[in-house]
Amino acid sequence: MSRSSVTKRPTIVDVAAHAGVSTAAASKVLRGAYGVSPEMKAKVQASMKALGYRPLASARGMRGRTYTVAVVVADLHNEFSSLLVEGIRRECERQKYRLLVAPAGSGKDAQDRMVEDLIDRAMDGIVLISPLGTDAELEELAKKIPVVVLGRHGASPEFDSVAADDFAGANLVVDHLVSLGHRQITYVNHTTTGTNDARLPEEVRVRGYVDAMIRHGLGDAIDIIQSQWSQEGGEESGRLILSRKERPTAVFAGCDVAAFGVLTALWNAGIRVPDEISVAGFDNIFTTSLAPISMTTVDQSGLNMGSTAGRLLLERVGGRAEAVNSSVLPVLVPRGTSAAPLLEVGKG
Amino acid sequence: MSRSSVTKRPTIVDVAAHAGVSTAAASKVLRGAYGVSPEMKAKVQASMKALGYRPLASARGMRGRTYTVAVVVADLHNEFSSLLVEGIRRECERQKYRLLVAPAGSGKDAQDRMVEDLIDRAMDGIVLISPLGTDAELEELAKKIPVVVLGRHGASPEFDSVAADDFAGANLVVDHLVSLGHRQITYVNHTTTGTNDARLPEEVRVRGYVDAMIRHGLGDAIDIIQSQWSQEGGEESGRLILSRKERPTAVFAGCDVAAFGVLTALWNAGIRVPDEISVAGFDNIFTTSLAPISMTTVDQSGLNMGSTAGRLLLERVGGRAEAVNSSVLPVLVPRGTSAAPLLEVGKG
DNA sequence: TAAAAAGTGTATAACGTACTACACGGATTC
DNA sequence: GAATCCGTGTAGTACGTTATACACTTTTTA
What we know:
The structure is a homodimer.
Chain A lengths: L3 H4 L4 H8 L3 H9 L6 H14 L5 H7 L4 E6 L5 H16 L3 E6 L4 H13 L4 E5 L5 H10 L2 E4 L9 E5 L1 H15 L4 E6 L10 H15 L7 E5 L3 H13 L6 E4 L2 H13 L9 E3 L16 E3 L2 H17 L6 E4 L2 E3 L15
The first copy, chain A, binds a DNA duplex through helix 3 and helix 5.
């Protein structure tokens, strides 16, 4: 039994004994709580260091905080999500919290299950990226645990939210294409089965497209393809466009990944971009900037949105009660896939 | 005080009371432990359902398992990591475990800190993706918690590992380029500062390149650029190559992202690929398959590697003691960025 | 100078679950 | 017919930490 120092992890009781104080005192020092003298603090911290003490989050979680927050994400493959996550992570790191990423998979059920599991695992708070479900459901959730909703529109007095102004972003793209001379602009939309939540980014973006078209007097040219925001969805949309007699001069996909799919379909068919058809996306994921792609898109600064979300969440964890709803203004990133159309296909 | 049912989450004590049995019995049912009759099992499970009981992982973690494992990843932006993670996730889901992704940031310190934090958070096991550090360190870690090392070479009797045969993969690329007629093949290497671990993928790949060149009698043409496997590192390497008097006819970057950087530099300089210079990467990340890029690379089936790692980890958690070291054979994915060189720059 | 307040430390009861020991009845073994 | 074993259930403690309640000093206030 002489291997006690090797075999067991030191606890706060060990620390207190080593420092010659009560465990309550040691706990206070650990938490930075009120009621410790500078000498006590120094003494206990020295003992913690000497023993290599590390608090056990499971045990802390039963009475207080775990100093752990999570971000629920449907899919890690989405580069934009990665940016958001990185933003949250940096803010958490700054405040000595740990961020864990929870890949839920797609669908509302999967997301809900993950959220429950995270509550079971005593997270101090959670960030939800473009969650499905109603405001009421999210508000119910917010009663149980601090919540920040990222990338979903609509303010709530019950939980914090951070979203880009997708309406303005879609406007930027249409304005850009119209200013280049385009009039036939097709939009590739994302349709979620079942849910039809006006607060999801996809719904706001398509409204932004419609609004801008009407504003430019192009209401008759409005053309929306109902698809999925994935590589495959984009390719199908591209093929659909090519199968038509009258092709648009520009395609605006509401998401970069879908725009890649459109590009792929066009390239495969030998259509030159932007000479024959211009293409624009949304999100400014990293790949859009690669030289051979160089795609026109909209940047919503995922890094900033993420760190804002992180800050809001930790404020909530710290006790703030009033909701904060933050909005970020996106900017257009014009690149090589958009240019003036070769021949005007105007009407009238 | 009439809101007791609303205000508090049910515990296993509540379940036991509701079912009219002891908490020990309820716990047995929950864990599926030995010593419960079918009637008891049914009764307790009915009570759990009726109360909406959910076990608290923090509390479980203090005595037994949390049914949670984590994968430590330096950077979520790496598409290949995402593939690995997805593979692990699927296997965990199959076995009713939860996978959380721990973004550590780059560098050994950051990684080590994250691992400690995960142990503090009572993970049942962890997967490390291409970890830095020595075998001894990893073995020390494996004594504390079940560990599977992913994407790092070298078998150990102390922990499980899953790796692609990077040596063979690099051979495939060189063989391919040589068979097309290339003789001047430059390799873009990744040099980690400080560490020089022969078991890291980058070290094995560069050895594979050197070996294949010698095997083809091209020992004198060996040309290695010390760089970083990032977009920037690739671009710098590309510019370096262009600044030379004698340019290679092919560039092999040990990582797709770096290969993108090389492509970017070449495109910016107006060099036609593959007409003037062929380019090949490694990993077969999704973007390589996009039509305008269509890059030759090597696929190591991240999904399979991930699910294998997940399976091994959960076996370890379940009690297996002997180490399992698994290796995956990669395959060449020839695409549009590699072709026969226009003019032979042979020697002698 | 007495009373109140502020500062500093301690004892100890939770928190929710797991699991070792053990008790009890019935079936099996010798 | 006693001894053993097996199946099933329970009591109660341990896990590591937090936080409430309180005791004792010292400082401030009236």
